[in-house]
């Protein structure tokens, strides 16, 4: 105590008496019993263990479907306190508090959840919001990986290291790698690569299709197909364009088909009813979020697509 003000003791987890430095005990006003000394040492040890456990985040906010799926797979949904709107897998995360869209997150929404870690893929934004969050002292970690099996595995391992789940991450990463390697082996040397068009929506009878998007092109390539559209981003595609050069397959969500009024109405909207006549297998309803997120479940969704467009490679 100096000038009537008590000096706080340093945190026990950061400062422990070294051998021969028991002066704090010797200066006590009365001798301490062996039991008291042991009790104090035990308290310091337990406090240190508690601090070590606290270093592993227990209140995690996730952004990006790939990140959210991975964190839940490794640590359980109870560790996740909030997600962005692109996070849809597993279904239980949809009931969690939202921090807004991945590229337009809400700073207030994040901070209101009192997280000790925000993990996102590289699309987190806007940048001023990210910097503002970091300025509050919140730990913000961005993860990324190549758009293939090894890239997914690398993301899984990185996330596992961030949340203290290395063993679980290694097991999951190896599972993903094995699946993607096995799929690549099945598709090795395919003679033809069917054209596949991804339709995100069919609102008002207009098909909104994907052009040159890395996630789409990579997923189709891994499944043994190719995206024939080369315009940037998403654009409405006219009936005339699709009818003149119909793709081998259309990939979309089951909800998109249902909203269009069923498969026949969907094909009519795109002028594809004639090109797809008698070929019901050419319209493939997929889990769009899973297929293009490049999270752990993407390997399974890519295999399902591969089975659709290359059934000969999966014959018994």
TrEMBL record:
It holds the Pfam family Peripla_BP_2. Coiled coil: none annotated. Residues 59-313 form the Fe/B12 periplasmic-binding domain. It comes from the Bacteria. Residues 1-28 are annotated as: Disordered. SUPFAM superfamilies: Helical backbone' metal receptor. This is Iron complex transport system substrate-binding protein. It comes from Labrys wisconsinensis. The lineage of its organism: Bacteria, Pseudomonadati, Pseudomonadota, Alphaproteobacteria, Hyphomicrobiales.
């Amino acid at each position: 105590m100096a000038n009537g003000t008590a000096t706080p003791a340093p945190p026990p987890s950061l400062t422990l008496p070294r051998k021969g430095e028991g002066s704090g005990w010797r200066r006590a006003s009365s001798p301490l019993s062996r039991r008291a000394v042991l009790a104090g040492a035990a308290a310091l040890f337990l406090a240190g263990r508690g601090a070590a456990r606290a270093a592993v985040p227990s209140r995690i906010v996730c952004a990006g479907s790939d990140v959210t799926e991975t964190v839940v797979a490794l640590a359980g949904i109870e560790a996740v306190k909030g997600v962005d709107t692109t996070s849809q897998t597993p279904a239980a995360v949809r009931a969690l508090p939202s921090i807004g869209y991945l590229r337009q997150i809400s700073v207030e929404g994040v901070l209101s959840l009192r997280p000790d870690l925000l993990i996102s893929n590289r699309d987190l934004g806007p940048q001023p919001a990210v910097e503002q969050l970091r300025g509050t002292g919140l730990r913000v970690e961005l993860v990324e990986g190549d758009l293939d099996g090894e890239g997914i595995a690398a993301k899984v391992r990185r996330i596992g290291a961030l949340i203290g789940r290395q063993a679980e991450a290694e097991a999951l990463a190896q599972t993903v790698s094995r699946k993607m390697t096995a799929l690549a082996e099945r598709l090795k040397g395919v003679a033809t690569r069917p054209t596949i068009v991804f339709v995100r929506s069919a609102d008002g009878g207009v098909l909104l299709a994907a052009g040159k998007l890395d996630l789409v092109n990579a997923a189709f390539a891994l499944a043994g197909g190719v995206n024939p559209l080369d315009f940037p981003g998403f654009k409405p595609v006219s009936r005339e364009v699709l009818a003149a050069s119909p793709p081998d397959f259309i990939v979309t969500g089951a909800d998109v088909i249902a909203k269009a009024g069923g498969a026949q109405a969907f094909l009519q909207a795109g002028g594809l009813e004639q090109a797809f006549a008698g070929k019901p297998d050419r319209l493939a309803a997929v889990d769009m979020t899973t297929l293009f997120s490049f999270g752990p479940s993407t390997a399974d969704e890519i295999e399902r697509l591969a089975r659709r467009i290359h059934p000969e490679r999966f014959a018994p």
